[in-house]
Queue: 4 jobs
Job 1
Amino acid sequence: MNWTGLNLRITELVAWLQQRLEPADERGGGRNTDEGFHISGGAIVAGAIAAGVGAFVAKKLGALD
């Protein structure tokens, strides 16, 4: 898989997750529900960044050639 394919997969994953999490009902969850959404959103972003950095390092080391 090349860089374009990897970027496309990451973008598709983030878009899918946003679609799944966006229409949350804010009427009855309270503080804990809001915190859970923020924590999970941060974890998703961190995972995408880690995947990108890992792919970059692997490419530099020649593991993806």
Note: The radius of gyration is 16 Å.
Job 2
Amino acid sequence: MTDERKQELKQLLHEAMGKLIILYEHRPSHIPIDVYKRYLQERWKYYGMDFLSFSFMTNFWLVIEGENTESKSFDLLNENTKLINFIEEELTPFWHGDSIQTGSYTVESGFPHGSHLAYTQSGSNQSHHILQRLLEIAIVRGIEEAVLAFDGSCRPEGLPGFFQYVALVERLKVETELQIYEGVRLVPLPPLNTEKITSEVIRYLPGFPSHAFIRQADTFFGKTLLVIDCPGFSIFHKPPERLFESGTRVADLSFDVEERDVKFQNRKEINAFIKDFFSQALSLVCNSAFEIYHIGWFLEEDKNLHTQGPTISTRHPLLERGRFVSSTKADQSEIDQAKCLYNRLTNLNNGTFEKLQIPINRCIKSKISQTSEDKIIDLAIAFEALYLPDIGESTFKLGVRASWYLGNDKKDREELREIFTKFYGFRSKVVHGRKPNGEENITIKGEPIPVSKFITRVQNLCLKSIEKIIKHCLKEGKFPDNDYWNSLILGDTDSLKCHR
């Protein structure tokens, strides 16, 4: 846009802001601008999470007062406003039929043939949709920022910025935002008892089912998000252009794209970080069971004039998972420990990493199993995968190997041997159909221990085993085999010491 047109847009926005009203579902009452501003700020702060979207849709309408507001046919703004005309004139090159095609893409790197695009979101926008987004930016960021955003959208290369890959970390609670890597962070969602803007907005929504909101609030508040920055851009497509496809090379585009250095260069790396490594490392460090679910993409609000997304609703079914499950707290020191373990896991060769998957996953699963029987079976599978690489089960063999490997001296090994013997005796009863009594005790060294505490003790031994074997694999380059275990129990203490 020319400087004159920018000044004209600035003046039009200034006039519109003076007459703007916010309606909910075309109802007579309206929400004060300052309240709606805080609502938007809150929603953008939490990467598109809409605090009000539990059991109904929140449809707000931005209307310029005095311009046919009695009509029931308008969508967001009356189409005869000067602002609508201005937008349609400036975006003339991008019209296709009765709408403007838009697209958003991340720029992925780390490939042999150069960087390429990955599709994130596209849609057809009416001019009043674009105007609503422009006005929302003006409300939150100011008119100057809204003009800059619109000017950028008129360029062939569109609006560059960062997308956020947003995932839910189930069962994890953090008190403050914690950085994992540059551009990779854990973000706490606010607890219900400190959230004020939500209840403030509710006061202006006639017929809002506040009782439903209170009942369902625990599905959202207090949870933790994993947020990963990904470079990308948002663009208006010209009518002759095909929508870019995933895999389109950046070098083949008709415009330059700024490529930014980020921790994870593409979605494959992001998925590996989440699925194969970090969730496991964090679970082991915190002695819990975390699961990470991708729930959406978010684009910086002033880099996106698409009102159709991306945004995340708290009605997302994944937010219902583990609704009444207790959470485990983590702080920066534990995140740093998880990073160290994550680095160890990523440095393992593929064969070794694959062999560790069964014991790691079963150890973690034992934390969320619903019954003592399931926990015992999960742990037995984990121990056998760690200590019995040879074919054929041997309770005696496993107990001796684990006791030698984990014990510090003869007394310690004797106690560990008893624990594993009692554990496998208990496991045999479970697989033959016996359900453990909640009041039942396991006697170790003459001391009765409740089943629940005994299982916790065994879980800790499993975790210790995994940590030691990871160190062994990094040093030796391979998983402990049958020969290693045989030499260990025959007295090769030098081999044992080097992995402590």
Note: The first strand starts at residue 20 and ends at 24.
Job 3
Amino acid sequence: MPSKSKTTIAAFMTELEVRDALTSMLSDQSFKTEPGYTDEELYPDHQAPFIEKHMAYLKGHPKVNPKDYLSNLRIMTKIRT
């Protein structure tokens, strides 16, 4: 079992599973999934696509459990009528 300090996305979910979950959110009209601001030069308009923004966050924060992160993301982006 990996130590807590070296936990990676793969310890919780595979990268493909996370990407699939974000893709399904992107295609579901009941979620607000617009691009987000980034200061990276990779995006000329400084707007990171929804999936790339959240994948980068999870890769940059390996101690975050992606299942919990996705659950919270669904709650925060849900469009309520």
Note: DSSP finds four helices and two strands in the chain.
Job 4
Amino acid sequence: MALRDLRFALDEKGLKALAERLVGQAMSYWEDDRLLRGRVTSAEIKRDRYGNPYIEAELEEDTAFSG
């Protein structure tokens, strides 16, 4: 499982709606110099130290993807 911080130019209401839709979706992401694909297992709204909201998503690597 990989935890990723996802930052979007949305207000908090938009982030809540997006976080709900992300769960179960496939997503590609970079880890070091490799492009991986995973499925979002959970997504929740967090705040950075300045109070700005962002989504923290937990991804499960998709082993069937060969990219």
Note: The longest helix spans residues 12-22.
